[in-house]
Amino acid sequence: MPQSTSLLEPNALTGFETIDFDTVDCFRKRSGYSQINIETLLDGILLLTPTGDVLRANQPAYRICSQLLTTQSQPMPLPKVVWRLCQTLMAQPEAISNLAETEISTAQFPKLYLRVQWITLDAVNHPCLLVVLEDRHAANQRLAAAEASQYGLTPREAEVWQLRRAERTNKEIAQTLYISINTVKKHIKSILAKREVELEWG
Q1: Less crowded by CB within 10 Å, the N or C end of the chain?
Q2: From CA 44, how far away is CA 46, in angstroms rounded?
Q3: In order along the chain (202 residues), what is the average pLDDT of each group of 10 residues?
Q4: Where are the alpha helices (DSSP H) in the chain?
Q5: Edge-to-edge strand ranges of the sheet holding 112-119
Q6: Is the overall model pTM greater than 0.90, yes or no?
């Protein structure tokens, strides 16, 4: 494991606030900007040295890592799952792969996507590791809330859609909301109809 004793607080170091995302595959298609302030991103962003020292951690990364670290029996600077993925990438010849990725599920994060990629920064004279931590469960919940407003869903339909976006089955939705499966199906039919109208005329 890295020799650092604790994960740096967000903004602990300066000089790494922006990243040239033209070189980062997972962001190139998501923004029209090449330089992005990592504090504006909802995804967790970690910049690490190959020895595991933290150069930068934005607020989402600090939050996610702090919660993951609470489940470890021994205090470590990085969550084990993050450092293991970094080691996987470092063990691969760069000619074969420039990235490593995985998805995990924990009590705090039902669907957490992790991606590690080599990146070159002008401020550092050696390649660094860019770690992206994407809480896909939270992202789906934000999307469902936005869609509920966009489609004009009723409060009950919004609850059903939140669970549907969380990939719950009709049976699980019914059990969670204490309604029948037929009622769930009626809500989903209504939601999809409203969605179709919005997509067609919105």
Answers
A1: C
A2: 7
A3: 45 44 42 52 87 88 88 71 93 78 91 92 81 91 92 94 91 95 95 87 64
A4: 25-28, 59-69, 80-90, 136-151, 155-165, 170-177, 181-201
A5: 54-57, 44-48, 128-135, 112-119, 99-104
A6: no
